[in-house]
Prior knowledge:
Pfam family, one: Transposase_24
Strand content: under 5%
Shape: elongated
Region (Disordered): 47-77
Structural class: mainly alpha
Number of strands: 0
Number of domains: 2
Largest sheet: none
Amino acid sequence: MYEARDKAMKTTGSRDPMAWLDYGPVWLRRDYWESLCHRWATGPWQERSQVAKRNRSTHQEKNVHTSGSVSYATHSQKLHHELERAPTFCKLFDRTHKQKGTNDYHYKKKRDYRRIIFRR
Length: 120
């Protein structure tokens, strides 16, 4: 849905959701798109959106779910600070693929992938 809104915004050159009415995605019924545009244009939704934007920009590391995952560069910088040297690829991979507080990888496939990478 983000991509559909973003495309409509870029196509119209406007941040006003009411200007997007005719630029909905082909995979969504027109009446649904129009109701979403009306909702996005309301005051309460706009206020919540602004609050969420401020929170995401202020607390980037705490809002992983809403702002995406933490980048390799950020993990690398943190590890560099913790280790007082540049982290190895193995350490960086573990930091980004293991669950916090455990030694378990998020998914079996990633564990197998790590074995393949570090087999040499």
